[in-house]
Amino acid sequence: MKLTDNQIKAVEENTGLQPVPEDNPAMGQLKENFGEHTFYVDDRGLYVLETAPDDPQQEHATAVQVAQWTDENMTALQPHEPKATDAIIKITSEGESNGGGEPQQ
Which one-letter DSSP state was computed for residue 3? Predict the structure, then answer.
């Protein structure tokens, strides 16, 4: 899912995670391989966020790993089948509601 600016801000406030910047040279290839998403990386790999179907207010999302680093220097990613993690991330700020509509994609 492609997060809104408010959702990106909420993720940062709740986790400290920073998204891969839109002007990153790899963004074109990421979108080509994985679609329109807001991407996050850590020392294990590349992630996107997906809301759960049982969260009608779409206030939380699950981190889904879509690629892992091929080496310890983190220079290349190897795509794999999406793997949902146990990480549940709040994607709304206090007092903010997504209105229960469809998530942006």
Answer: P
Quickly list DSSP for 24-35. Answer: -TTHHHHHHHH-
Render the burial of 65-94: b for 16+ CB within 10 Å, e for the rest: bbbebeeeeeeebeeeeeeeeeeebebbee
pLDDT in tens, 68-94: 999 999 999 999 999 999 888 888 876
Where along the chain do its domains lie?
5-90
Global pTM exceeds 0.85: no
Query: Tokens 């759960």 identify what position?
Result: 52
